[in-house]
Amino acid sequence: MTRPLATAAQPRRAFVRLLLADAIRSRWVAFTACTYALVFGAFIWLGLRESSVLGFTGISRVVLNLANAVALVLPLVSLVATSQAVVRARSSGFFELFLAQPCRRSDWFVALLGSRLLVIAGPLWLLLAAALIAGVLRGETGLAPLIGRAALVSFSLSFAFVGIGLLLSTLARSGERATVYALLAWLTASALHDFALIGVLLRVHMPPQLVFALAALNPVEAARLTLLGSIDPNLAVLGPVGFWLSNQLGPTLLVTLGIGWPLLLGGMCLITCAQLLRRMDLV
Question: How many CB atoms lie within 10 A of CB 144?
Fold first, then answer.
């Protein structure tokens, strides 16, 4: 027997308020906002200078450099914000109290997912909106599609690593292990994946399609290609590789890859996490 929709939504709203209050009290919102603001401030002078680098000037250069930096910062913030969620709730006794309440495990899980996405993606979206306003005031044109795509890519990338972080937190037996797993996941996505792929290419000759497929398995690389394609559809910044990718994929498939694949990866991780939470002992 299913609960009425209004009754089912009440525990989720209560959990969302509880989790957001905890994030504000623990200064997580301030941490994410400051992190993005520092990244934004470090790159904004590159865009406000009117010198031309690879054809990018003005606010467009700000968004380009910010997007590349966020491709590294956003996965780290997402993993740090989620890798302790499940294991901390299990070890602190929260689940023992939670099981005594008239609510489902799915209510808490959905509220946790929504609150984490809001805390992680919300401050970044505000900064992108500020960049759009600054560009309009400076007379920049054509920024709305660029910033809109950056917002979608940032959300899909955060969704992917929120799913990965929650899955790692569910599998870990202690908070220390969850932290190690999260750092390894970030290093693999940020640096080790590229080094491993380059090492394989130095040893084994592979067709370009296979090389691109292996690189695109990394959601960070898929998001970065989409963000670069929003500035330069020909991907000239990547040299001959960029021209090959733009000719083989096209702008539509490139956007689908950069947004769809992280969403799919995050969805698979979240489904696995939800199934584990439904079956496992919480205390």
Answer: 11
DSSP, res 238: G
Average pLDDT, the chain: 77
282 neighbors 109 (Cβ within 8 angstroms): no
Amino acid code (one letter) for 196: A
The answer to whether 69 touches 39, Cβ cutoff 8 Å, is yes
Q: What pTM was estimated for this model as a whole? A: 0.83
DSSP label of 49: S
Q: Letter for the amino acid at 25? A: R
Quote the CA–CA distance of 133 and 137 in Å, as a whole number: 6
Q: Is the pLDDT of residue 64 over 50?
A: yes
Q: CA-based angle 245:258:188, to the nearest 5? A: 95
CB 156 within 8 A of CB 117: no
Tell which residue, 59, 262, 47, 87, has the closest CA to residue 144.
59
Go through 76-96 and write b for each residue having 16 or more CB atoms within 10 A of its CB, e for each that does not: bbbbbbbbbbbbebbeeeebe
Q: How far is 190 from 73, CA to CA, in rounded Å? A: 9
Write the DSSP symbol of residue 173: S
Where do the domains of the chain lie?
11-279
Place of tokens 């972080």: 165
Question: What pLDDT was estimated at residue 53?
Answer: 47
